[in-house]
Amino acid sequence: MTVGKSGIILTSSDGNSWDNRTTGTTGNLWSVNYGNNTFVVVSDTGKVLTSTDGTSWTTRSTGSSVRLFGSTYGNNTFVVVGDLGTIRTSLDGITWTSRVSGTSILLNEVTYGNDTFVVVGRSGTILNSTDNGTT
User: Fold this and answer.
1) Contact indicator for 122, 109 with CB cutoff of 8 Å
2) What predicted TM-score, i.e. pTM, was given to this entire model?
3) Which of 26, 77, 97, 129 could pair with 117 as two cysteines, CB 3.0-4.6 Å apart?
4) Rounded to whole angstroms, what are the CA distances from 13 to 18, 41, 54?
């Protein structure tokens, strides 16, 4: 699966032939991840798109309107990050909780490993959380 500008999501079962999926958004899409039987894609409108099959997509509110750039799934938790130090977490990809990052720097990406979420942003910003993104 790949995402891009103007709400484009492409899926492939073999990596050779790609199908364009209807998303219902014209915003730019930045990151896709999979967990808990759900795909989550972040957008530059502060919303996320979710799908259980990669074909049909539903727009979900995160409670933010800023651009979201990074997303990951780990330890049964989705984490998305973006402009103005925005961090949101979700257990199901549908209901999102705002988290305090302690910065207003643009956060570019988030990953999970070794029981820790790590977020990177502009100006060398690095944040980490060992409690599922709560702090």
Assistant:
1) no
2) 0.93
3) 129
4) 8, 18, 11
